[in-house]
Each structure stands twice: as C-alpha cells, then as structure tokens.
Amino acid sequence: MSKTYFDETHCAIGHPKSTFMQWMLTIDHKRIGIMYAAVMFVFFFVAVFTAFAMRLELFAPGGQYMDGNTFNQAFTLHGVIMIFLFIIPGIPAIFGNIVMPLMIGAKDVSFPRLNWFTFWLYIAGCCIALASLFIGEGVADTGWTFYAPYSMNTGTNVIMALVAAFVLGFASILTGLNFLVTIHRLRAPGMTFFKMPLFVWGIYATAWIQLLATPVVGITLVLAILEKYFGIGIFDPAKGGDPVLFQHLFWIYSHPAVYLMILPAFGIMSEIIPTFSRKEVFGYRTIALSSASIAGIGYLVWGHHLYTSGMSDIAKTVFSFLTFFVAIPTGVKFYDWVATMYQGKIVLSTPMIWALGTIITFAIGGITGVTITMIGMDVHLQDTYYTVAHFHYAILGGVVFLLFAGMHYWFPLVTGKMYNETKAKIAFYLNFIGFNLLWFPMFIAGYYGMPRRYFDYLPEFEIYHQLSFYGAVIFIAGLIYMFWVLFKGWTKGEATTPNPWNATTLEWHLPSSPPPLENHSKVPYVDFDPYEYKHGEPVVKFNYETMQRID
C-alpha cells in the first residue's frame, strides 16, 4: 500500500493499464474537474446552437423553419441544458474541483471516491436528459421551469426530463457536501477562515446552497412525477391541487440557485482584480461576509417571481423589500472591486479585460433586475423580452463571462502552457460586442410589449430581432474563436512558469505546472493574508520544494 494520499494509479477501482481508463476511473480532483469541463462545454455548444436556431426562426415575422410546438421544445431544450447541465454545476464542478483544493493547501477533496461517483452521477443525469429526446413523444415543451398544470398534461416526455433534473440535483447535493467538509477539514495549517482566498469563500457559500436548497427542488420534482404517473392531485387544480404551490416550491430552490451560479463567479472576480491590480484586495472581510449574506438572504426572495401568479399585497411588498435588500451585499462587492483597482498598477491581460467587461454586463443585469423588483414595473414587464434580456445579462454576462475569465486566468496553471494574448483579447472583444448587440435590443422590445417564448410576433418588433440575430452571429464567432485560441495554446503554446501572473494565493505556489499528483510538495504553513502586495510585487514568496517562505 502506497503511503501517498492515493493508490498507485489514483483510480477509484483497480489498476487500469490504459491512459483512457485511468482518466475514466481517476479520483484526482484536477482530472475530474477537467472531465467536467469537457462534458459541460459540449452541452454548452448544443444549447448555444439550439438558441441560434431560435434566433434564425425569429429573424422575420411568420413561420420560417419551425412550428409552435417545435419552438417550445427548442427553448425547453436550451433552458434545461444551460441551467441544469452547464451553468448551475459549471464553476463549482470545474474550478471547485481543479483549483479549490490547491488554494487551501489540500492534497485533494475530503472524499475523492465520492467525487468520482458524483461525476458519473452527473453523466447519468446527462444521459437521461439526452434519452428524453428520442424516447416517447420527444423532448419536453414546458420550458425549463416545468410549470404545472401544463407539465402534468403535456404529451411530451416530461417525465424523463424531471428524472434527469432530479439526478443532477442529487449530484449537486453530494458535491456541496464534499466541498463543505473539504473546506472545514483540509485547510492548510494556519489558514483560518479569514485567510482563505475569496474564491474559496464563494465555493463555501455555494456549497451551503447546494446542500440546503437543492433537496427542495428534488422533492418538488418527485411530487410532479408522482402526480404525472398516479394522478394524486398535488398541483393539478382539476384534481384539487394548486399549481401555484409548484411555483413556490420551484422558486424556493431556483432563486437561491441564481446565487449558487453567481457566488463562485464573484469569487473568480475577487481573485483576478487584486492579481492584475497588483494590490491587496480592498475590504477582504466585507467581500467574504457578503458572499455568506447573499447566500442567506437568497432563501427569502423567491416570491418576486410570483407577483402576477396571485399573491397578497402584503406578501408582494415584503418580497419586494427583501429583493432590494439583497442588492446591498452585491453592491458592496462592486464597490470593493473598484476600490481595489484605484491607484493600482493595473495590467490589462486577458483575464482582467474579461473581468472588467463582466463588471459592465453584470451591472446592467443587476440594475434591470432592480427595475423588475418593483411590483408595478414587474406587472408590465413580466414574461416579456425585457426579462429575457435581464436574465441573460446577469447569468450569461455575469456567470459565464467570469467562467471564461477563470479559464484564461487558470489556463497556465492547468496546462503549463500560455495562449496567444493578442488573439485571446480579439476573442473577448468579439464576444463582448456580439453579446451586447444580441441582448440589449431585447430590453427595448420587451419594454414595448414583445412577449417571450413566442415563435411569431408583430412586424414592429422585427428590427429588434434582426439586430439580435446579427449579434448572435458575432457572439458565436467569438466563442468559436476563443476556444480555438485556447486549444492552440494547450497544444502548441509556449511553456510557462508556475506563477506567470505574479499571483499570491497558494495554487500558484506549486513545484510545477501542471500541478503534480498530490499538489504541493509539502503542506504549507499559512501565516499570511491571501493578497499581500507591496509596490506591485507579491510580499510572500516560497521555495517550491520545501514550501518554506523565502521573503
């Protein structure tokens, strides 16, 4: 038996000879994170091209390529893949696995074999979702929310979609549990909670949401399946049920899930800003505690999704107030990021310009979210393209953009190579321009009354849909070019040092890049804050072999 943390092949079962099987059975957190990324980005592009097909249909009024039922199935497929298969699990599964143990000085997560099992549970959920496309009456046409009573009455294969979402939720719970135990139990000696990097704080807050909120949607999906099969009458009013109950139960989970998506993304921002400002992060404790505050308050605001579903005026007022209140810790983060950059030695490398671009796009998403928090405005804008634009500015322009920022930031750590900076910046500008041209016209169309989820529309909305189509073309071109640049960097890029950005957190204090099997050569002792700079240079420096400070 090896004395190392893993067995000889660091695999869950046996000692496979082939490289392929070693990857399939690996319990190394870094390899598992890379496999999550490979699978998730395949689904991401499936969802992107499904959305592009809808944009193509909406280029002009009248039916072009789809009928109404096909359009319903297309936006359901797009929503289910993007939300359940990519955005909710994305940053925690990819960077939570690859980077978080490195940042706290751990050899791996607390339960490596559970981590392996969770990955394959995620794959099982994906396979069930894919099978729903080909079994029965075809993909569900309910939208990603599966609202009752329509989801109880539709003839499409909604059951398999519900089962897939349940399995994916179970994988999310196990991931959250694993990360919580890891952060509590495996931090390096001397690393108190207020010496943890801010990305770890984001993962920590997210893990609590995964553990506490996800079971609610799991129970809701089980109830929907039972009603669909056995006609119990929980949500169907014809059988004595209450369809609004489904909405309450769904959004009790799904609004905290919005913060489940965004909190680790904010953590990425909080790593990039001080690194490329060459300056200690401003308001470390307020950023850390605001993550915990957002996670807590996020449980209390689900009702703002139901203003038009039937709710007392008092309840509407309370939910509106609480939703305004949750903007305070988010605003604190933005203030601290800008204050960190103030008088810093800013380096406009690719990760930094992704972060700066996200400040703009997410700010637009946040401000427009405050607009529809107001009850009167929400009644007017509910289920219009204004809501669609707000959601995509917040989630795509916030979560996914910061995921891309993290990809560029930790790329040399994972690959040991460097991409072409000039080409990577061109890819950013294509994405940024295409994104805004794609989504901003929808604010105007929605304000003037263009309803969402319609496959046809009045002629006066045509200009907005055409602008969005041209934006989609530029955006997709930018995505393809960005991944091509990263692929070329991985295969043919120049070798890089373990710390090319002059960053200060522990994942950059490694003996080699990519990191070795058990990460740090020796467990470091953390007697310093995570973002210490002086005159634009890191204060703390290590001998990578002994993990002793040499500053």
TrEMBL record:
<keyword id="KW-0813">Transport</keyword>
<feature type="transmembrane region" description="Helical">
    <location>
        <begin position="353"/>
        <end position="377"/>
    </location>
</feature>
<keyword id="KW-0408">Iron</keyword>
<feature type="transmembrane region" description="Helical">
    <location>
        <begin position="34"/>
        <end position="54"/>
    </location>
</feature>
<keyword id="KW-0249">Electron transport</keyword>
<feature type="transmembrane region" description="Helical">
    <location>
        <begin position="198"/>
        <end position="226"/>
    </location>
</feature>
<feature type="transmembrane region" description="Helical">
    <location>
        <begin position="426"/>
        <end position="448"/>
    </location>
</feature>
<feature type="transmembrane region" description="Helical">
    <location>
        <begin position="74"/>
        <end position="95"/>
    </location>
</feature>
<keyword id="KW-0472">Membrane</keyword>
<keyword id="KW-0812">Transmembrane</keyword>
<protein>
    <submittedName>
        <fullName>Cbb3-type cytochrome c oxidase subunit I</fullName>
    </submittedName>
</protein>
<feature type="domain" description="Cytochrome oxidase subunit I profile">
    <location>
        <begin position="17"/>
        <end position="527"/>
    </location>
</feature>
<feature type="transmembrane region" description="Helical">
    <location>
        <begin position="281"/>
        <end position="302"/>
    </location>
</feature>
<dbReference type="InterPro" id="IPR000883">
    <property type="entry name" value="Cyt_C_Oxase_1"/>
</dbReference>
<dbReference type="Pfam" id="PF00115">
    <property type="entry name" value="COX1"/>
</dbReference>
<feature type="transmembrane region" description="Helical">
    <location>
        <begin position="468"/>
        <end position="487"/>
    </location>
</feature>
<feature type="transmembrane region" description="Helical">
    <location>
        <begin position="314"/>
        <end position="332"/>
    </location>
</feature>
<feature type="transmembrane region" description="Helical">
    <location>
        <begin position="389"/>
        <end position="414"/>
    </location>
</feature>
<keyword id="KW-0679">Respiratory chain</keyword>
<keyword id="KW-1133">Transmembrane helix</keyword>
<dbReference type="InterPro" id="IPR023615">
    <property type="entry name" value="Cyt_c_Oxase_su1_BS"/>
</dbReference>
<keyword id="KW-0479">Metal-binding</keyword>
<dbReference type="InterPro" id="IPR023616">
    <property type="entry name" value="Cyt_c_oxase-like_su1_dom"/>
</dbReference>
<comment type="similarity">
    <text>Belongs to the heme-copper respiratory oxidase family.</text>
</comment>
<keyword id="KW-0349">Heme</keyword>
<feature type="transmembrane region" description="Helical">
    <location>
        <begin position="246"/>
        <end position="269"/>
    </location>
</feature>
<feature type="transmembrane region" description="Helical">
    <location>
        <begin position="155"/>
        <end position="177"/>
    </location>
</feature>
<dbReference type="InterPro" id="IPR036927">
    <property type="entry name" value="Cyt_c_oxase-like_su1_sf"/>
</dbReference>
<feature type="transmembrane region" description="Helical">
    <location>
        <begin position="116"/>
        <end position="135"/>
    </location>
</feature>
